[in-house]
Amino acid sequence: MMGVAILFPVFVQIILTLALLVATGRAAPGCAGREAGAAEGHRPGQRQMARRHAQIRQLLQQSVRAAGCLFYALCLSTLQTANADYLMVLLAWAFVISRIVHAYVHTTSNAVRRRGAAFGIGVLIILVMTVILAARLLLARL
After folding, report:
1. pLDDT of amino acid 36
2. Tell me, what DSSP letter sits at residue 65?
3. Number of helical (H) and strand (E) elements in the chain, helices listed first
4. What's the pLDDT at 123?
């Protein structure tokens, strides 16, 4: 049963990515052409709205970055090699939580330090999971 447990955080990550894609897609039609008018010096509210629209578009780009792809590949590799134990499942959940925090910060306050910290934690977790899996596979061959 523990082997299959590695897939549950993967499903949550997939749902998060899909939710961000849908939210961004729904906001995108209102974003078209907004930056040009705001950049020409129209009302301050328009400039802020243009920044918000640019932020939404960037969210789509960031939600499909390499960290998510690495996570998917790593979890499937862990499952395929029968290394999906409690530690790897715990780390997988920690990664997904870091991605949820990252998405929340990005779509609300967009505080760069907090968003960067959440992203950095997620990348560190991917690194730790990769080292653990690689070490286990290498040691199994000795």
Report:
1. 44
2. S
3. 7, 0
4. 84
CB 100 within 8 A of CB 69: no
Tokens of 51: 């920044």
Domain coverage including residue 16: 2-22+63-141
Nearest C-alpha neighbor of 101 from the set 26, 25, 16, 22: 16
134 domain-assigned: yes
pLDDT, mean of each 10-residue run, the chain (142 residues): 81 84 65 48 70 71 70 94 96 96 91 87 91 93 82
| Residue 57 one-letter amino acid | R
Domains in the chain: how many in total? 1
